[in-house]
Design a protein that fits this description.
Blueprint: H1 2-13, H2 15-29, H3 38-56, H4 58-75
Helix pairs in contact: 1-2, 1-4, 2-3, 3-4
Length: 79
Amino acid sequence: MTATVVRALAPYVGATMASAAVRGLCEKLRLDGNKLGPAEVQGLIDALAPGLHVYVGKEKASTVIQQIWTAMDELGAGT
């Protein structure tokens, strides 16, 4: 599941930064990256959002967040 989030972030912040950010936040939030339900996805997005705003700007961050939700919905984790 976290790979989906990393793929959404990578074009904007790079694969290494995306992977490190997601892995670090999952550890901090004590999330199992393989089992993310809607609440866990929202928590991860909430934790990622401030950094995204800094790196890509508010408008682009909204686009990235929407891409994450779309990808999670396709996996069945967003509903």
